Hints:
- By secondary structure, the protein is an all-alpha fold.
- The chain has nine helices and no strands.
- The chain starts with 9 loop residues before the first helix and ends in a 17-residue tail after the last helix.
Amino acid sequence: xxxxxxxxxxxxxxxxxxxxxxxxxxxxxxxxxxxxxxxxxxxxxxxxxxxxxxxxxxxxxxxxxxxxxxxxxxxxxxxxxxxxxxxxxxxxxxxxxxxxxxxxxxxxxxxxxxxxxxxxxxxxxxxxxxxxxxxxxxxxxxxxxxxxxxxxxxxxxxxxxxxxxxxxxxxxxxxxxxxxxxxxxxxxxxxxxxxxxxxxxxxxx
Length: 205
């Protein structure tokens, strides 16, 4: 017997259940029918909010960027009165921390070949999260956030944090002895966004 639709906050409940199911078994194990059973409604009720599994995944990924942005902003606020470079480092640490806490969601957010890039809600959420990093880089460089050099430096900084986070959640660092594995703080503290990576090598020895 099908359960009647009676859930007052079904959209939020479905997304919460989807995030939990994603963490348990990955995207392939996730279905609207399973989520409906988890929250106690009929499967037809899920279509009031999501026309398909893919539509629900888009919103889940966008919500992941909302959460990432909140984490990055919280990190900036918690850092207090520190240098602009230290704030940038703190944001990098928070980025890695987010990936470590919810690796399945992190993988979905940066899924294969930009699968969600055509969705405006997703693009806006991802862009807002990236802007936190851009603002930190702009403060370090003392330049406007929309300056080309700032954007290029922000992408370089993002690449460092994202690369380290990915190496960690995919298990590539676990093969190294503990003494050889750097912490997130050690990695992001090596960021240098002041010259945009154009520093000439020291040929004097």
